[in-house]
From TrEMBL:
InterPro entries: Sig_transdc_resp-reg_C-effctor, TF_LuxR_autoind-bd_dom, TF_LuxR_autoind-bd_dom_sf, Tscrpt_reg_LuxR_C, WH-like_DNA-bd_sf. This is Transcriptional regulator. Keywords: DNA-binding, Transcription, Transcription regulation. Residues 172-237 form the HTH luxR-type domain. The keyword Transcription applies. It comes from Bradyrhizobium neotropicale. SUPFAM superfamilies: C-terminal effector domain of the bipartite response regulators, Pheromone-binding domain of LuxR-like quorum-sensing transcription factors. GO terms for biological process: regulation of DNA-templated transcription. The keyword Transcription regulation applies.
């Protein structure tokens, strides 16, 4: 177990994009006997779609997001109301479900998502997410697996959420334009005259990844060069200090 968890932490630390986070969790969940996982971070602003990272079937995830099922999903409803982890499934006792919610669970089961263990993730600033470990197993086998490993699964969920929020969700604005922490890191080092290779060495990422973040920041700020983007960052910092 120690080796599995240490590898998980290493993979999470190295992850920069959603696919890296998905691989970290998928490899670890599979090693623990759980076939699927799904992480959903609720949007902070109306009209925005939730962030979904999962190994659920692609057709189901697309259908879920397209149908705005986060508004109907009884698992998310319970995760919003409670901070305690919980098991769920069609044959597991739970709160009474509406006809639409029952249809939702039947739909999920058709895609091989019939049982789950969900960890609600509530932050101090009001942000809410949930991470679910799911399987298409016989109920006794699934419950034994979850009961044996529940503390580890909860810790994995919290580590995952913390890293995703730090790398993918947290934003800082420059003149009202949101930039991710990694974009700001790379732009800050570029403002000090560092090359993409040097930035990669400093931040522990590849040269190409550093270039990706710099170009992303440049495009967001609407300027032609990284130097101009760095100047915008320096100007914004100067304004805050005045």
């Amino acid at each position: 177990m120690h080796r599995i968890f240490q590898r998980y932490v290493d993979l999470l630390s190295a992850a920069e994009y959603a696919d890296g986070f998905s691989e970290a969790m998928a490899v670890t969940a599979t090693a623990l006997g759980l076939s699927h996982f799904a992480y959903l971070a609720m949007p902070r602003r109306r009209g925005k779609r939730p962030l979904v990272i999962s190994t659920y079937p692609v057709d189901w995830v697309s259908h879920y997001v397209r149908s705005s099922y986060e508004r109907l999903d009884p698992i998310i409803t319970l995760a919003l109301e409670s901070t305690e982890p919980f098991k769920w499934g069609l044959d597991l006792p739970s709160k009474p479900l509406s006809a639409a919610q029952q249809r939702f669970l039947h739909e999920a089961a058709q895609f091989g998502i019939s049982l789950g263990f969900t960890v609600p993730l509530h932050d101090e600033d009001g942000a809410v997410a949930a991470l679910t470990f799911a399987a298409n197993q016989r109920r006794p086998q699934f419950e034994r697996c979850v009961d044996l490993q529940a503390p580890v699964l909860q810790l994995m969920a919290r580590c995952f959420h913390w890293q995703v929020r730090r790398k993918l969700l947290q934003e800082v604005t420059i003149d009202g334009i949101p930039l991710s922490p990694r974009e700001l890191d790379c732009l800050g080092w570029a403002a000090r005259g560092k090359t993409t290779w040097e930035i990669g060495q400093i931040l522990g990422i590849s040269r190409n990844t550093a270039a990706y973040y710099l170009n992303s920041a440049r495009n967001k700020l609407g300027v032609r060069t990284v130097v101009q983007a760095a100047m915008r960052l320096a100007a914004a910092k100067a304004d805050r200090q005045d």
